[in-house]
């Protein structure tokens, strides 16, 4: 027999490049997680020597995990000498960003959101932006840039001619930052999308930005949410809009804008033929402003999305908006939540929905009405064949209204998401009616009854029929006092349910109820939320078996009473599971040693993408 001599390899980077290419290909082919991340160290030499800079288009930053640079397979690219692979996004620590911005000449998208440490590289980033010709999108949301960082970026963009999308939201830019942005907009002709939400601009910071819009005609999307603009800034903005009519979206949510400015803005928005979104939530329009906005909706057929939530609208405004959506068949999403339109307004809206063929998303959460209004809405659902998403959260719906909605859905074939949470007047009768509906309904895929004061008997009335349902994917019954009996009731019917996701947060299940639920999970279930349920260590064995079964990909067991007695079992399953990609288990009763041991095992598992444990020192 001939013998072969083998060379000992101590580091993966000692392998020949062609072997690394094959390994890279193999890892990509064999991953079974929905968004597998490959540690950069695995292919370090291959990446630096063979993956050309122009293969990368998108740069993103890791926050708390994963800690190392990663390759995220996303879009087709080619390693020279290798097969086509899926990769696009590079995820790395923020300290390396400036270095790679200079190297990766084809980079088009840079996402640095939620990284306060971006401040440490903002000067280098700004220097890069002055001459960079490839980056078209930059996200700096929530980086605490303050006015200094905002001024630095603004100065750089006075010279940049390629950046189109810029998100500077939640950076506390203040007056000085706003003024610098205003000066930049007078000189920059490439930016088309600018988000300045939540920056404490006020009139002194936003005023120069509004003034710049007289000159700048390139900007098509401007978001100024939550900046205390009030009427002092909204009125000048309305005047500018007579000269600058090219906006596709103007975001003015949460700015304390009153009826007078609302009427002035609406008058000019009426003629802006490119405007697709009327984004005006959480202001103080009242009925007068609401009537003006209704006229805009009626006249401007380009508008597809309307947000007039939290605006003190009454029945008068609701009637006008209802008339408007009979005429404007372009509107597809409508948000009237947190308005006191009453039964009269809801009845008018329901009549409009009987004939409207365009609206697929409707948010009526916290809209007050009597049963007659909700029953009228149920009547609309019987004939409407367009609506897909309906939010009736916290509408104080009575039991008879809930039953009417359930019965209406027997005939409805389009509504896929229904939110009925925080309606604590529902009883067993409503849940039984929905149970009967689910036995035949094939449209609903997402149903929420969170915090409806449901007991074990009521929730069993709903779960009993799930064996006959083949379409419901997600069910949320969190925040209901189900107790151990409720857990047992759910367990009796869970194995035959078609659910992919079940939310049981804060249901007082205890160890006994949780054990029953975990022992009855169907193999189709992929996600379960059992957080804040007073789950005791005696449920650990059932939890371990459920995690070992190989079908759960997302599990939340945070804020319970698991302790060191569960550490060994959980560590063992975290070492071997390949299905789990998301695990939340913070705020249990693990000691520092157990917490860190679990964290160490989770970090080593390459299929787990998200976890919330942090090292305790």
Please render the helix and strand layout as text.
Layout: H1 17-30, E1 37-39, H2 44-50, E2 58-61, E3 70-72, E4 76-78, E5 84-86, E6 89-92, H3 97-103, E7 109-111, H4 122-131, E8 137-139, H5 146-157, E9 165-167, H6 174-187, E10 193-195, H7 202-212, E11 221-223, H8 230-240, E12 249-251, H9 259-269, E13 277-279, H10 286-299, E14 305-307, H11 315-327, E15 333-335, H12 342-355, E16 361-363, H13 371-383, E17 389-391, H14 399-408, E18 417-419, H15 428-440, E19 446-448, H16 456-463, E20 474-476, H17 483-494, E21 501-503, H18 510-518, E22 527-529, H19 540-548, E23 554-556, H20 567-576, E24 582-584, H21 592-604, E25 610-611
Parallel strand pairs: 2-6, 2-7, 7-8, 8-9, 9-10, 10-11, 11-12, 12-13, 13-14, 14-15, 15-16, 16-17, 17-18, 18-19, 19-20, 20-21, 21-22, 22-23, 23-24, 24-25
Antiparallel strand pairs: 1-3, 3-6, 4-5
Helical segment count: 21
Unreliable stretches (pLDDT < 50, length at least 5) are 28-48, 50-93
The proportion of strand residues reads 5-15%
Distance between the termini: 57 Å
List how many beta strands DSSP finds: 25
Write down the overall geometry. Answer: flat
Class of secondary structure makeup = alpha/beta
Largest sheet: 23 strands, mixed
What percent of residues adopt helix (DSSP H or I)?
A: 25-40%
What is the averaged pLDDT score?
86
How many whole angstroms does the radius of gyration measure?
28 Å
